[in-house]
Amino acid sequence: MKIIHVYDGHEMVFPGEGSVPSVVYHLAKYTAKKGHDVTVLERRWVGTDYEEEIDEIKFVRFDLNICSNVSNKEVVYDLIRRPSGLMRFILDRTVFAFRTNEYLKQNEFDVVHVHLPFAPSILININGKLRDKMVYTAHIGEEKKRFALDSSASLVFKLFSPDLYLMKRIKKSVVLNEPLKEKLINKGIEEGKLEVIPNGIEVDEFNLSKEEVERIKRKYEIDDDKVVVMFSGSITPRKGVVYLVKAIEMIDDDRIFLLIVGNPNVDREYAKMVMDYVKKKGINTKFIGFVPYEDLKALYSACDIFILPSFEEGDPIALKEALASGKPLIGSNVGGVPIQIREGWNGFLIEPRNEKQLAEKLRYLIENEEKRERMGKNSRKLAEEFDWRKIVEKYLNVYEGVMG
Asked: What is the rounded CA–CA span in Å between residue 18 and residue 331?
């Protein structure tokens, strides 16, 4: 089977560059390991070749020079808020679509797998033949923005939903959880066009040595004498970080060391508010920003409890990374989070925006070390169910259905 992944995002397709590009990379890698011919098409980043092979994946890249060619430098939601940024965004995706079409006319593939809706929505109009061989994975974690359900949505999404437009016109779409599938059916997407497949995790990558974990603790000055509570993700309102710091403030226990790992530049105003609040309240917290993937894996091992207090999620990679690291979890009962947290077995589910409930569950785990260890072992067992080798089999079934 010849499969091409088309990725028009602002991050390089590589582990640690972001949740979606990491998913694309691992999906391509394990499909290639099954003996299939797999190509990834993306923009060319500074320092990369136009073509190269990594982990049996063929990478094809082309220059656009409209948006940044530095991975992770531009945030899409920031870009499209400004009229000039919106025009640059539209031009970028249009050129990307035409360049992709040129490549696809010269190279035949059985399946065209896309991961963002913008350029593919243009692509299926300039080449209608692609509709019957296209698979779209909807990596949707911000439903209110993407479907213009509230005022936080940009003008683009208020006028037009690229996700819905694309899903209605192509052969198959994959969503990450059942609740989103039901919402899309209510939005007019045919049930037969939808499949639910969660994200995977490369479990063995999280088998780290004690020496590596100790090195990371020293590098980031993590206090071994404390109970290390970790959050990983962009510091944005939907991630609910402020409710996490308020919960820790309520507990008022000097045994807690809060570790916040993630990009503070997606919403600088919100991130500054969280940092100022922590400083004002004297909460023992360390913000370490965006870190290399190898460091991130070790940081999961260095923590005692992982918390994701989001308002909405698709199928968060951060939770899977914490699962594979064998950590007890606390997460909001939204989106794909309940798939990864079994109440009382490997962690606790809480209602979003409820710092009191979060404080109660966190206090329980802090005071019950034995329970933390048992839940952590259960998390590792659950991670095995999401191993990429198993997830890839589900995608291959989708591909075969598209071809059939």
From this structure: 20
